[in-house]
């Protein structure tokens, strides 16, 4: 399913294949030889999503750009089932395994591997050929790789990256943070009310 969003329609190369149950919304460009499988969602929420050539987006993956952070995915990249990319840049020949999460402002270098259920956190930079082990968290610039049992160290690094400030423009100490966050984000997402199916 393809949707016009905020006046922009997806641009899909004739040699790319998009499954009929995938959702492609807004300012999305999909390069030659790319494959988008069933249940995947690629949505441009105010910023563009650009997929290079021979990108494979597997079942139920989510790729989302924001007005602050576009998504740029190089060529020969595999985005595994149930993986999520939000406002990040992914270089060529990257493998993002099942269930991986790559957050806003992150940059993943050439030939990196982010293995099953691993996380590349907000504004984290992975140098080329970095491997993030299964379930581990990469955080910071330059990235530190930490096992999930090291929560306090992860939080110490993550706190300074300021997720609510960077993504939503809100101070973490705001007393009604979740009220403001959901109202602001909901208002932005409500722009989908005017979307128009184009396929």
TrEMBL record:
Gene3D superfamilies: Hexapeptide repeat proteins (2.160.10.10). Keywords: Transferase. The keyword Transferase applies. Coiled coil: none annotated. It comes from the Bacteria. One of its GO terms (molecular function) is transferase activity. PANTHER family: DYNACTIN SUBUNIT P25 (PTHR13061), GAMMA CARBONIC ANHYDRASE-LIKE 1, MITOCHONDRIAL-RELATED (PTHR13061:SF29). This is Carbonic anhydrase or acetyltransferase, isoleucine patch superfamily.
């Amino acid at each position: 399913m393809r949707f016009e969003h905020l006046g922009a329609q997806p641009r899909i190369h004739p040699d790319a294949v998009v499954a009929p149950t995938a959702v492609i919304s807004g300012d999305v460009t999909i390069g030659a030889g790319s494959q988008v499988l069933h249940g995947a969602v690629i949505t441009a929420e105010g910023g563009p999503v650009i997929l290079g050539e021979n990108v494979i987006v597997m079942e139920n993956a989510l790729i989302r750009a924001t007005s602050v952070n576009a998504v740029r995915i190089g060529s020969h990249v595999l985005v595994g089932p149930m993986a999520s990319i939000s406002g990040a840049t992914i270089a060529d020949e990257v493998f993002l395994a099942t269930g991986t999460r790559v957050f806003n402002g992150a940059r993943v270098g050439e030939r990196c591997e982010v293995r099953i259920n691993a996380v590349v956190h907000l504004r984290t930079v992975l140098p080329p050929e970095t491997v993030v082990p299964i379930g581990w968290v990469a955080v910071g610039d330059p990235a530190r790789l930490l096992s999930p049992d090291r929560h306090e160290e992860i939080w110490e690094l993550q706190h300074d990256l300021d997720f609510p400030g960077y993504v939503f423009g809100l101070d973490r100490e705001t007393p009604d943070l979740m009220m403001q966050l959901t109202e602001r984000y909901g208002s932005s997402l409500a722009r989908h009310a005017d979307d128009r199916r184009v396929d």
